[in-house]
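Deliverable D4.2, example record:
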Amino acid sequence: MQGKGLITIVAIVLGLICLNELLPTWYASKIEKQATAIAGDNPEKYQKEIARLSKDTLNLGFTELYYTKAKDKEMKLGLDLKGGINVLLEINQRDLVNDLTNYSTNPILIEALNKTDEVQKNSTRSYIDNFFVEFDNVNKAKGANLKLADPEIFGNTNLSEIKFNTTDAQVQSIIKKRIDLSVGTAFEVIRTRIDKMGAVQPNVQRVPGTARISVEMPGMKDIDKVKKMLQTSAKLQFWEVQQFPEVAPYFQSLTTAISTKGDSIGVPRNTNFINLMQSGKSGNPSAVGSVKLSDTAKINKVLGSKIAKALRPGNLKYTQFMWGYKPEDSDKESLVLYAIKGSANQKAPVDGAVETASIGYDELSRVVVDMQMDSKGAKDWKTLTEKNVGRPVAVTLDNRVYTAPNVVGAIPNGRTQISGNFSQEEAKELVDVLGAGKLPAGAKVVQATQVGPSLGQESIDAGMLSFGIAFLIIIAYIIFYYGGAGVYAVIAMIINLFYIFGIMDSADATLTLPGIAGIVLTMAMAVDTNVIIYERTKEELFAGKSILEAYKDGFKHALSAIVDGHLTTLLTAGVLFLFGTGPIKGFALTLGIGILMTFFTSVLLSRVMIFSRLNKGKHLSVWTAPTKNLFRNTWIDFIGKRKYAYIVSAILTVVCIASIAVNGFKYGIDFTGGRNYVVRFDKSVNAEDIEQNLIKIFKTDDGKNSSVEAKSFGSENQLKISTDYLIDDESLKADQTVEQKLYQGLKADLPANITLQDFKAADKGDTGIISSEKVGPTVADDIQTHGILAVVAALAGIFIYILVRFRKWQFSLGAVAALFHDAIVILGAYSLLHQIMPFNMEINQDFVAAILTVLGYSINDTVIIFDRIREYLREKKSLTLAGLFDDSISSTLGRTFNTSFTTILVILAIFIFGGDNLRGFMFAMLIGIAFGTYSSIFIASAIAYDFLKAGKEEDVHGRTSTNKEVLASK
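Output generated by the structure prediction step:
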């Protein structure tokens, strides 16, 4: 066999590389199991044992293993397997544009920015691209003929490379590069902050083409702390402060306005604004109010209303009202409010000028943060303090006032101090944030996922169980069906799995639960490859060839179909990877690696092993007694029955489309935006009662109901709760408010002693939030758009591939029609059954992955039949076209049955044993594989036949029909 030596060398080298990559994972797991066996559930004792065992080394000759290094190199597990936190941060590009325009107040610029903000909510284009379009539109509408290089836009001292004669196209290029650099700076700052948090194996990546940064932190538990650390801009600002006498007349006018217009503001007319402002007990002289925590939302609503803004006097036109960052020691139930003196461009007098920061203590031994400003900051700070001797100056971070002391005298050296009633931990967090550097603009969490470690372990157990059962099913079936040849298929499959894990580890890829599903489906693909080879080999043996010649021709004739099947599935995986996000990318990457390794092991390496045996004169069976003649003489007049199939498919399609139109779908939050919580209780709970209770809790301030759904998730003591309450508010405070209300709404069904913190921290017990997910509206729009693009791109790619490969558009039409049929049936099933089935049937990212995977498998099945039709078109020209199609489909029935049967068995194993998160995904796969097999025969082939026939009458069917030679003209 040609290339035998090369294939063997590649297999050995690849095996050694994978072994070297996987050894650290094995060794780290071994040490951790030893530590757990000794320490049990005691975390302190566990850490001591890890420290002790870390001193040991294992010398294997070619490498030396020790725990610390092995832990760094072990295979990464996704959050769904290990637990942890994943957030998607978005850098505020409006802030970046404002900075680049030097905070210009040009009305055309402001209007363009406002319109861009609105457009961006439903756009997948970058912010800056939309801004340039909107700027051009506003510019034309106003007839201003304003250039981007104008001094009031980008032609300022911040951008020396822009001159008065720089064209708009050149300015656009410069600005895009500047924004890209700023996002790159933000990426480095975020990565440094994560390092300071002590995260193990964090994964920080920029999302190409956007101002987004994906952060995955396995093992982290405190999501509030993570969000705070990542969102904080670390851009300290120093402002002048306006005191109560300056704002008192304004507050009095607001009280009067509320008495007549409170309804339009959204607060009761009897609300006394001044009394609310003084409801707290703080005596802070720098503040304009001290407000009970329960009343802060009302204050925000009033001050943010159009009526309040219209009533502002001249001295408060640009004033910003900011809260203290936490309650003061004198009154833990209130927050103080400050009036910050602003300007037209709202640029702080001293902005982000901190050079170093450290923890210190004041004369009363209270924790403070000492700071040294850079040279420019020191100069600005001196000017500000000189101007405000005897008056307060506020120190703010992300629009929260940390302190506002009175200035005793000018401070010339740039040294200052923040005293904000810090605990030691809070001071350390602030110092870490400042030390990591400032973000070039504000950041917000637009998507977040938290998985508790207990749920992660359950996912691992469920995933490994389904993996093991599926593997045993495949081994048992393939050996039962193909005998000795099946043993070689199993050996190739085991090597294939070893390569997949090794390559993923070497590529630093993350293994997720969908990734495990991808590996299991790759195993099914490997079975398909062997089935094609062995079925062709059986045909050659039945034709009277020797065992050696039969295997040679079996591999030779199977190669074309295998290549087509692998390429179409690889095309699907590529589309998934290109358009997918998060888990879908993991699934696509695993599937792509698996397909490539399946071809190498099941076609090339398997061939080397089989012919090494055959060339020694040894026999290798390709069947067993019960399976030898299965499907051998089966022949069915499929083309003659195609009209019945058309009727069945037409009825199915109409029912599915009608259901979609009437019932619609249950969309997941990654398509609509919202929050999901999986909550575990210590007893069985009634989902409907809890849902009704939460609907009352999650009412908006204006009395409107938010969307709330509670549904059993896996067991009667576990619920999946979804809501869109406050989803447009992407602040940390909004997240905390939702969690607080959720806790209140569920408190009656929770243990009496559980606190809010215990409820939020799933690892502290079996009761509480074991996973959570948040998807902002803009991210949901992007995911939905990318999902649609993925399906369209997959269909277009498959159409083009089939057209190029088979040279007839009729084949492409039949293939795409069959795929469209499969997609409609799956969508219809989800529309009909989402309110009935006891598991999640949402239309979400996983569903898109399932649809595309089904399309890949369906087209693979279709390609096998088309490949045989193409072969017979060359060899059996005496047959009628109908007879040729029937022969082709009938001759591939063994392969079709075996592949579909084993794949369905594998999917059933994952569906039953793979855990709640995968059931909806696997259900779509079950429907898709079943109907994909049906459509390959009765839709794809039938449509290709009808259009190839091109109106010529042909009423005789059968493989021996020779009275109409219609093929000669084809």
